[in-house]
C-alpha cells in the first residue's frame, strides 16, 4: 500500500498534481466549491483569536496555518482568500505551511495560491518541526498505509502481498510487529474467527508526531471512519480496505482482490479508527475538544447558532428547507446553498465525514464549529 500510493516514481499520489474532482477518481469536500474552505477559514480565524487573547500583549502574533495532505493547495487557497476578505488581521499574521508527499503537487503550490502566495512559508513533504497555530488535515489519514489482519482459530494472522506466478497475490503469515498483537487488547476489542480488519499504525504514529510538534494551538482532522468498537464489529467484519478508480469503488466483496490490480493506478483507502487517533493526540498533551459529523460542524459555522439534538431525518430537513428563516443562510447565494447542502446532507458527506478537534495548551475554548449538537452517526 505504501508503494502503490507513495512510491516517488510509480505511486498513485506521487505521479499527479490532483486526483480528486470530476476528472479524477473520487470527490472530496474541496471539490464541492470554495464554501468548505471559507467555513474552515472562519473557524481558523476564531482559533487565532483564542491564541491572541492568551498572549501577554493581547495583540495578534505569528499564526501558523499548516495543511497536511495539501494536494495542489486548493483548500489553502480558498481559506486564505476568505481570511484576507473577512479576517485581514489574521491573514497578515498567517504563515502558511503546505505539507504534501507529491513533488508534482508541491511544484504548483505558489501558482494555486495566486496572490496569497505571499503567506506561504514552506512547501514540504514533512510537517514543520515546531508550530503554533492550527493544523488541518482533510481526508489524509484514510490514505495512509494500513496493516490488514485476519483472526483464525489459532490466533491473529497478518495478510501480506507477494509475487506469484500470475501476478500479485495474498498470503497469511505471522504478525510483522508486536504492536498488532497488543492493539486490540488495548482497545478491549475481540475479533471473531474469520473477521478481517485494518490497523492504521501509520495514521496513529502521524497524529502522535503532529501533536508533538504542535506547541500551542489546534488540530482539525476531517475524515471518514468510526470509533474502535464500531469499526471492529460484525458490521465491518470483512474489513474496509477499498479502491477508487473513476469514481467507482471495489471492496472485499469483489470476486478478486481489487487492491492487487493495477498498483499505482488507483486509490487505496481504509476507514480511520478514531479511538486510537484520539489516544495518540491526548498522549502528547492534547485535549479532545469535540468529535462530530461534518454536518453539525459546518452548519454551526454557517449559522453561529447553538444547536439542538436532532434525528437524522430532522437534520436532512434542516439542511434542505427548514433553515430558510435563518438570516445567515438567507445571505448565502444559490450556489453556496447548493454547496452547503452537498457538504452537510446526511447519508452523504455530512454524515460520512467526521470532524475531530484537539487543542493543546489552549484550555477548552468555546469554538463556533462545536457549538451545535455534537453527534456522530
Task: Note the main attributes of this structure.
377 residues; alpha/beta; Rossmann fold; 2 domains; eight-stranded mixed beta sheet; four-stranded antiparallel beta sheet; 15 helices; 34% helix; globular
Write the layout of secondary structure elements.
Blueprint: H1 2-6, H2 35-53, E1 63-68, H3 74-86, H4 88-93, E2 94-99, H5 103-106, H6 109-113, E3 120-124, E4 131-138, E5 147-152, E6 155-164, E7 167-173, H7 178-186, E8 196-199, H8 201-213, E9 214-226, H9 228-231, E10 242-245, E11 248-250, E12 267-269, E13 272-273, H10 274-283, E14 287-293, H11 294-303, H12 312-322, H13 327-330, H14 334-344, H15 349-352, E15 353-360
Parallel strand pairs: 1-2, 1-4, 2-3, 4-9, 9-13
Antiparallel strand pairs: 5-6, 5-8, 6-7, 9-15, 10-11, 10-12, 14-15
Structure description:
- The chain is an alpha/beta fold and 377 residues long.
- The protein folds into two domains: 260 residues, 3-Layer(aba) Sandwich (Rossmann fold); 79 residues, no CATH class.
- The chain is 34% helix and 24% strand.
- It contains 15 helices and 15 strands.
- The strands form three sheets. Strands 1, 2, 3, 4, 9, 13, 14 and 15 form an eight-stranded mixed beta sheet that branches. A four-stranded antiparallel beta sheet has the order 7-6-5-8, covered by helices on one side. A three-stranded antiparallel beta sheet has the order 11-10-12, with no helix packed on it.
- Helix 8 runs parallel beside helix 10.
- It is globular, with a radius of gyration of 21 Å.
- About 2% of the residues have low confidence.
Q: What is the SS-derived class?
A: alpha/beta
Q: Give the helix level as a range of percent.
A: 25-40%
What is the H/E string? HHEHHEHHEEEEEHEHEHEEEEHEHHHHHE
Give a quick account of the main beta sheet: strands, pairing sense, barrel closure: 8 strands, mixed
Shape descriptor reads globular
Q: Indicate the mean pLDDT.
A: 87
Low-pLDDT windows of residues: 305-313
Query: So, CATH architecture of the largest domain?
Result: 3-Layer(aba) Sandwich
The number of strands is: 15
